[in-house]
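We give its fold:
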Amino acid sequence: MPGEGSHPQDRAAYSRLFDEHAEAVHAHALRSTGDSALADEVVSLTFLEAWRLRDRLRTEAVRPRARLLGIATDVLRNTARSARRHRAALFRLPPREPVPDFADEVVGRIAAGTAWPSPGCSTASAANGSSTGRACSCSASGRCWSGTARGGGPATR
C-alpha cells in the first residue's frame, strides 16, 4: 500500500498521478459498465495495480494516462470474467426448494385457540399417548408438555 515502506518521492508521484488521471479512469470505467459503484471499484483496482507496477511504469516511455486506461481495461475484463464465473457457479447450484407459507395456519390456530404440539409430540400423540413411550399433553393456551410414559412426570421444554 502507498506509504508502507515506500520512498516519499514514490508517494508524492503516485498522489499526483491519481489527482491527474483518476477522473479519466473513472469516466472510462463508467462508460464501460454503466454502474458508478463498479466504476469506483475499477478505479481503485487500477491505481492499486499501478502502485504495484510502479517500478516498471517508471522505466516505460508510455504516457501515464494511456497506461492507466490500459490497466483499467484489463481490470474491467477481469471483473466481467469474475462476474460471469460467479453467475455460472450460481446456475450450477440445485434449485432451492420453496418454503411453504405457514402464516394462514398460524392465524387459523390462533383464532381457534388450538395448541401447538411440542417437538417430538404430535397432535395424535397428545391425544392418545405416543407409540415411542413419550406422553404429551397440550393446554388450550398452546403450552405443551412431554415426558416418559413411566410416570417420570411432565417435562417442559
About this structure: The longest helix spans residues 64-92. The chain has six helices and three strands. The CA atoms of residues 21 and 93 lie 42 Å apart.
